[in-house]
Prior knowledge:
Layout lengths: L8 H28 L2 H20 L6 H16 L4 H33 L1
Amino acid sequence: MSDNYPVPAEVVRKNGMRGFFGSAGGLGLIIFTRLATMPVIGWIIGGVLIAGGVVGLLRKDRSDKFSNALFIAAGALGLGTIIFPDAMGFLGLIGGLGLIGYGVVSFVKFFKGLKSRS
Length: 118
């Protein structure tokens, strides 16, 4: 986007939300990964997340299919620590850092958009 024209408010708002939730999701994924690598706690959390995701997918309201699929994937990550604890911890860390990076890039776009509107 050009610096000469103000960025639409909807785009600025969208970048701010992406920045916040991307960063928070990345931090949450890193914390979840650290918890999931603990032997029994990770198995319990993984099982609960998979069960919650499956129940969400079986409901009549299918508006949250993507978030339920993410619950199932996070649960699989937690249960995967039974077999490959180090690999799952590494994948969770890389995913969390990627989400935090996405959040930071979105925050930069957000602040540029705010600056162009002033």
